[in-house]
Write a structure and sequence with these properties.
Layout: E1 3-6, E2 9-21, E3 27-39, E4 41-47, E5 52-58, H1 62-69, H2 91-103, E6 108-115, H3 125-140, H4 147-157, E7 175-179, E8 184-188, E9 195-200, H5 207-212, H6 224-232, H7 235-241, E10 243-244, H8 247-253, H9 257-266, E11 272-274, E12 281-284, H10 288-302, E13 307-312, E14 321-323
Parallel strand pairs: 2-10, 5-6
Antiparallel strand pairs: 1-4, 1-14, 2-3, 3-7, 4-6, 7-8, 9-12, 9-13, 11-12
The chain binds 4-diphosphocytidyl-2-C-methyl-D-erythritol and adenosine-5'-triphosphate.
The site of 4-diphosphocytidyl-2-C-methyl-D-erythritol (CDM) has 20 residues, from strand 2, strand 3 and helix 5.
Length: 325
């Protein structure tokens, strides 16, 4: 049976304002998301049985990721923080089930998920996995011109999912301005290549929990200045206009995040902030060289206990490799 392989990327929210609370339990957001080269690995195989099977493992190994985070993964024990659900609470399983229902597909899928992106980090890892899974499924079944249906499935799975879908013409943007609850996307065509240092502090945060702590601002900040600087590739003005409205509510739940932000700031990552609802933080580096040097320095200061990576902007949807049966 046909196999599809791809490498779903994570995202960072470079700008995130929340202008209003809605009646349906969601919030209106005004955000600029950029995809980065911190990636999971996804392999999807079509199988004759009418079910979805999923296995998930950490890459390069659970011991190695646990070691960086200062967690014990001895004797085959997977630390709580690194447990990835393989039932229908995994967004990949939910997205593929919705795909089968939408298109009346009778056959099933076997999925192998290799995780590198931490969960509950605000990096959209599960969302990206889900979006790429339905893109893979559409390619396996050779469904053309289905981008609207895929977009519908994606937004039913989660607000961040549509960002990671391939666009109709496959020219996936590296960044997008997202509004509504996150599903209304305007691709940003001229995304400057930016380098970041990203830090995940070995604690996850629940997105719903962070939104629940938010006080919606009376005078929301517009993304206009950030967007203008971003389109011009003006790093300095971009840095001045970056913000994340979810920082304050996330800090109410996890005050220790302040120390991590302070460490990034002290290393010269100015500005630095949370991505999405946290718990991961990131800082804008001047270039790849500075980002590498800062990671080296932080590794000695912060590890074990914090996952640290240099990251760079990449297209939000990654090409899919098809291995015919
Ligand atoms: C924080 C962000 O990552 C920024 O990109 C997103 O807004 C979150 O998107 P997501 O993880 O895909 O969130 P969803 O799975 O759609 O929603 C999870 C929960 O977060 C809250 N939520 C999410 C998105 C939104 N625009 N308003 C909300 O209030 C709701 O309580 C919702 O029940
Ligand atoms: N494919 C998946 N990979 C990792 N975690 C998953 C996956 N599917 C479901 N989950 C569960 O979803 C929860 C949140 O994971 P996710 O990676 O979406 O968080 P996040 O990085 O905060 O995302 P977002 O930025 O969209 O809020 C975790 O508790 C995890 O157990």
């Amino acid at each position: 049976m046909t196999i599809a392989r791809t490498s779903p990327p994570a995202k960072l929210n470079l700008f995130l304002e929340i202008p209003a609370r809605r009646d349906d339990g969601y919030h209106e957001i005004d955000t600029v998301m950029a995809a980065i080269d911190w990636r999971d690995e996804l392999e999807i195989e079509s199988i004759p049985q009418p079910r979805i099977e999923l296995t998930a493992d950490w890459l390069p190994s659970v011991e190695s990721v646990a070691g960086e985070l200062g967690l014990d993964a001895g004797a085959g024990r997977v630390p709580e923080l690194l447990r990835i659900p393989t039932d229908d609470s995994n967004l990949v399983v939910r997205a593929l089930a919705a795909f089968r229902a939408s298109f009346g597909v009778k056959t099933g899928f076997r999925v192998r998920l290799g995780k590198r992106i931490p969960a509950g980090a605000g990096m959209g890892g599960a969302s990206s996995d889900a979006a790429h899974a339905i893109d893979c499924a559409a390619q396996i079944h050779q469904f053309d011109n289905v981008s609207e249906v895929l977009h519908g499935i994606a937004s039913s799975i989660g607000s961040d999912v549509p960002f990671f879908l391939a666009t109709a013409d496959s020219q996936s943007p590296m960044a997008a301005h997202a509004t509504g609850r996150g599903e209304l996307l305007s691709p940003l065509k001229t995304c400057p290549s930016i380098h970041f240092v990203v830090a995940y502090p070995s604690t996850s945060l629940s997105t719903a929990g962070v939104y629940a702590q938010l006080n919606v601002p009376q005078q929301p900040v517009s993304s206009a200045s950030f967007l203008q600087a971003f389109r011009r590739g003006d790093r300095e003005r971009m840095g001045k206009a970056m913000m994340n409205r979810l920082t304050e509510p996330a800090l109410k739940i996890l005050p220790q995040l302040n120390e991590l932000l302070e460490s990034l700031w002290q290393c010269g990552l100015q500005p630095c902030q949370l991505t999405g609802s946290g718990s991961a933080c990131f800082g804008l580096a001047k270039d790849a060289e500075q980002a590498k040097e800062i990671v080296k320095r932080l590794e000695t200061e912060l590890q074990p206990g914090v996952l640290l990576r240099v990251a760079q902007t990449v297209p939000a949807a990654t090409p899919i490799e098809i291995e015919p049966s």
